UniProtKB/TrEMBL annotation:
<dbReference type="GO" id="GO:0042545">
    <property type="term" value="P:cell wall modification"/>
</dbReference>
<dbReference type="GO" id="GO:0046910">
    <property type="term" value="F:pectinesterase inhibitor activity"/>
</dbReference>
<keyword id="KW-0378">Hydrolase</keyword>
<dbReference type="InterPro" id="IPR012334">
    <property type="entry name" value="Pectin_lyas_fold"/>
</dbReference>
<dbReference type="InterPro" id="IPR033131">
    <property type="entry name" value="Pectinesterase_Asp_AS"/>
</dbReference>
<dbReference type="Pfam" id="PF01095">
    <property type="entry name" value="Pectinesterase"/>
</dbReference>
<keyword id="KW-0961">Cell wall biogenesis/degradation</keyword>
<feature type="domain" description="Pectinesterase catalytic">
    <location>
        <begin position="66"/>
        <end position="150"/>
    </location>
</feature>
<dbReference type="InterPro" id="IPR000070">
    <property type="entry name" value="Pectinesterase_cat"/>
</dbReference>
<keyword id="KW-0456">Lyase</keyword>
<dbReference type="InterPro" id="IPR011050">
    <property type="entry name" value="Pectin_lyase_fold/virulence"/>
</dbReference>
<dbReference type="GO" id="GO:0045490">
    <property type="term" value="P:pectin catabolic process"/>
</dbReference>
<dbReference type="GO" id="GO:0016829">
    <property type="term" value="F:lyase activity"/>
</dbReference>
<protein>
    <recommendedName>
        <fullName>Pectinesterase</fullName>
        <ecNumber>3.1.1.11</ecNumber>
    </recommendedName>
</protein>
<dbReference type="GO" id="GO:0030599">
    <property type="term" value="F:pectinesterase activity"/>
</dbReference>
<feature type="active site">
    <location>
        <position position="263"/>
    </location>
</feature>
<comment type="pathway">
    <text>Glycan metabolism; pectin degradation; 2-dehydro-3-deoxy-D-gluconate from pectin: step 1/5.</text>
</comment>
Length: 427
């Protein structure tokens, strides 16, 4: 299988910032402080008997928004970012609700950590759309910038691409500037995402987040979430390569649509995707298709993907020409301790019988699992023969990847008004 069409292009070393070993360690340490430690579940959580009950408290029709966004001027604001800014820093512990009326909002939105407990809802998928076309090759993202100018963008985020190594993290301005004397010129910091969320307990409902850069643009993120205990219900994430960046922290996606071509669900978060439509789009000629690239680097940290009750199939643009392209893969481990499990999902026949791909050499240590899937692409008879691949048959093992166990969802989701199944959908 030729990987040329969907390997991320290596960056030449003359474009890379000079990074010392100390700086690299600083980045790794910073990332390690931002995620959930394994074994850190609240005391007594697993003693609760939530069983297979469906929690459904959604009732947006009874919610009175704090502010309204409308392009025609009929609301409090005409842009989403203005509404987010109205939350203010150091906000109280009350949830802040933003209603975004139907319309296409061409803007780049940042929801900082200083604006917690935001609920953002729209008028439905395809009706309320936040869109842009930032991408890896974008002219507005090229060139150089000093640390000071870039640090205005939410405490600073640095992306370093070293061949096949990528790490995105947030670091303290003062600590970082002392390490490099505030002199570094950053050429690898492309902010390719349309919306980025860092505040805790963010909720999005009935929204579309779209990157229109196209398959030729390489990495082009539609949505980045570094929001702990965040939930997304009936939202659409649309792009090609690297559509949805689950950067870190617990996340839950319910009845969402996620479109893409290569690694279009990626990152280090512990995340559950429940009853979602996973839609593979038409790639570039000789291109390839890979759904996930989970990036868990440390063995003592929580991270990984659980796709439960999802449907993995071709989008409308790929359906009529699906036979002209190589088969798709369910995922490829991005880092050493990557975890990805598909369970109780429908897998269509566009998926390669091998199922999984090892592009970065982590097939010995990663965890790739499948449990009670259906559909013409779900057979595990010809799956990869890796130590890290598991055909899960024990419900007790599969249960570890449920909402209750994998992201401790029964601790925080019941108050959100987002429906979820806490355990296995089929016993």
């Amino acid at each position: 299988m030729c990987e040329k069409g969907f390997e991320m292009k290596n960056i030449t070393t003359d474009l890379l910032p000079k990074v010392t070993t100390n700086l690299t360690q600083l980045l790794l340490n910073s990332l390690a402080t931002s995620v959930v430690i394994k074994g850190g579940n609240p005391p007594g959580l697993h003693e609760l008997n939530f069983g297979n009950e469906l929690y459904n408290f959604l009732g947006l029709e009874t919610v009175q928004p704090n502010v309204v966004v409308a392009k025609d001027g009929s609301g409090n604001f005409t842009t989403v970012q203005e509404a987010v800014n109205s939350r203010g820093q150091g906000a109280s512990g009350q949830r802040y609700t933003i209603y975004v009326k139907s319309g296409v909002y061409e803007e780049y939105v940042v929801i900082p950590q200083e604006a917690p407990l935001i609920t953002m809802y729209g008028d439905g998928i395809g009706n309320t759309v936040i869109t842009g076309n930032r991408h890896f090759n974008g002219s507005d993202l090229k060139g150089t910038a000093t640390f000071n100018s870039i640090s205005n963008m939410l405490n600073f985020k640095l992306e370093i691409t070293l061949g096949k190594f990528r790490l995105l993290t947030r670091i303290d301005h003062e600590q970082f500037s002392k390490k490099i004397n505030n002199k570094i010129i950053v050429k690898l910091l492309w902010f390719t995402w349309i919306v980025e969320v860092w505040s805790k307990r963010f909720i999005a409902v009935n929204m579309t987040f779209r990157n229109t850069a196209g398959p030729e643009a390489q990495q082009a993120v539609a949505f980045l979430s570094g929001s702990d205990k965040s939930a997304y219900y009936q939202c659409s994430f649309e792009g090609y390569q690297d559509t949805l960046y689950t950067f870190h922290s617990r996340q839950f996606y319910k009845q969402c649509q996620i479109f893409g071509t290569v690694d279009f669900i990626f990152g280090a978060s512990p995340a559950v995707f429940q009853d979602c439509d996973i839609l593979l789009r038409k790639p570039l000629p000789e291109g390839g298709l890979v759904v996930t690239a989970n990036g868990q680097k440390f063995s003592n940290l929580s991270g990984g993907y659980s796709l439960q009750g999802c449907k993995i199939h071709a989008a409308d643009d790929l359906k009529p020409v699906v036979g002209q392209f190589a088969k798709a893969f369910l995922g490829r481990p991005w880092f050493q301790y990557s975890e990805t499990v598909y369970m109780e999902s429908f897998i269509d026949d566009l998926v390669d019988p091998q199922g999984w791909l090892d592009s970065w050499g982590y097939k010995e240590t990663a965890y790739c699992g499948e449990y009670k899937n259906s559909g013409p692409g779900s057979s595990t008879d010809q799956r990869v023969d890796w130590p890290s691949f598991h055909v899960i048959t024990d419900p007790n093992t599969a249960n570890q990847f449920t909402v209750a166990e994998f992201i401790n969802g029964t601790e925080w989701l019941p108050t959100y008004g987002v429906p979820f199944v806490s355990g296995l959908e089929t016993l």
